[in-house]
Specification:
alpha+beta; Arc Repressor Mutant, subunit A
């Protein structure tokens, strides 16, 4: 949908994923979108070089999130939110919306 604006469909996927989930890591994107890891790593590196996202280590995992110091962050998030509203619901459900537990937890099961 916005790949011509962002220069690629993986950039669009990463930005929408970050908009909904606030942070992510490369393996999480690979599993969610069922694609190779290297294109997502290149996109994450490109976005980090541009200052749009920042990364930090938590254990051995490199997490990415929007850069709170990015000067156009509010405008970018508003644009992404508006564009996300026009995505088909089946794409939202398949890739972006968090999974909701359908069954109740077994009685007495520890959290």
């Amino acid at each position: 949908m916005l790949e011509s604006v962002f220069g690629g469909k993986n950039v669009e996927k990463v930005l929408f994923f970050l908009l909904i989930h606030d942070r992510c890591y490369g393996g999480q994107l690979r599993r969610t979108f069922e694609q190779a890891l290297s294109p997502f790593q290149k996109v994450l590196e490109r976005l980090e070089t541009g200052g749009i996202i920042v990364s930090f280590l938590e254990g051995k995992t490199r997490w990415y999130q929007f850069n709170p110091r990015y000067p156009f962050l509010q405008e970018l998030k508003a644009f992404l939110t508006k564009a996300y509203a026009f995505l088909p619901q089946e794409i939202k459900d398949k890739y972006y919306e968090p999974l909701i537990r359908k069954r109740p937890r077994r009685k007495g099961k520890p959290l």
